[in-house]
Design goal:
8 helices; Rossmann fold; alpha/beta; 12 strands; single chain; 22% strand; two-stranded antiparallel ribbon
Length: 287
């Protein structure tokens, strides 16, 4: 297992390390810490960073990892943060990239609209965007909101990859959202309405079966955990995910980036990007 952490020494960056420590990664996992500074603008995750500050961030991260048995590597890198982080990920090919979010900061639009968006759109590995709680402290992962749908070609493989390092003490909610159908008018509105209702009922049954299948799969993986499923209809996919996460008090939202046939659902740059920007908890995009 190979894990890449982009750090600037902030509370969210430290939360990335605490999250890693709380998960169950193999003993032979290699953790690589990188800190990027731009000699021209010095921006890393929204604020100015010098080479000295970048090295301090690395040292702080290594201190936090001191008690772990993982293999540890580190590097201070010069250049534009998004470009250098992507280059590091492409060259080293990690299984997952951890990066801190700064959604409450005054420069959040710059960060989420530039660095994180670029990384999410172009990174080939899974990406975890980690947030602290409202007080700036590490948020322990105990409630996992898993967003799935029928367009994922192999849901078992995806959920297995996503869940292999989660806590055995966590609770899970599998969420499947039914988008509104596009009605095709004809000369027989009554028949159109009947067909629409039939298609909606069929779709709902398929999604319920899909959620039930994922619940059964997760119960095999986590036999003592609380695992629930939910199928809902929604006009606004983003709001439904965010409201569900808030009401259920999720610690981590898990999504799979892909493009629907005809409609964008969990497409990076639309739903996933918006959820990542606005969520109050951490978000993991699993590839």
């Amino acid at each position: 297992m190979k894990i890449l952490i982009a750090t600037d020494g902030s509370a969210n960056a430290i939360a990335c390390i605490e999250t890693l420590k709380a998960r169950s990664y193999p003993d032979d996992t290699t953790v690589r810490l990188i800190s990027v500074y731009d000699p021209n603008e010095y921006y890393l995750m929204g604020h100015k960073v010098s080479r000295e500050q970048a090295q301090t961030s690395i040292n702080t991260g290594l201190e936090k990892l001191a008690g772990c048995t993982y293999i540890k590597e580190s590097e201070v890198i010069e250049g534009h943060p998004a470009e250098r982080i992507l280059e590091a990920a492409e060259h080293w090919q990690p299984d997952i990239l951890f990066i801190g979010a700064h959604s409450q900061a005054r420069w959040s639009d710059h960060f989420l609209g530039s660095i994180t968006q670029t990384i999410l759109e172009n990174c080939l590995c899974s990406v975890a965007i980690i947030r602290t709680d409202a007080t700036g402290n590490y948020r322990q992962e105990q409630k996992y909101l898993i967003c799935v749908d029928d367009t994922i070609s192999d849901t078992d493989s995806w959920v297995f990859k996503a869940s292999r390092n989660w806590s055995n003490q966590g609770d899970f909610l599998v969420l499947n959202i039914i988008e509104p159908f596009i009605e095709h008018g004809s000369e027989n509105p009554k028949r159109d309405a009947q067909i629409f209702l039939e298609e909606l009922a069929k779709k709902r049954t398929e999604m319920i079966n899909s959620v039930d299948h994922q619940i059964a799969y997760l119960k095999q993986r986590f036999p003592v955990n609380t695992i629930e499923g939910k199928v809902v209809g929604a006009m606004d996919i983003v709001e439904t995910i965010l409201q569900t996460a808030q009401i259920w008090q999720a610690n981590l939202i898990i999504m799979y980036p892909h493009k629907r046939k005809g409609l964008d659902k969990f497409l990076i740059g639309s739903v996933s990007q918006e959820v990542t920007k606005r969520a109050r908890c951490s978000v993991e995009i699993v590839r």
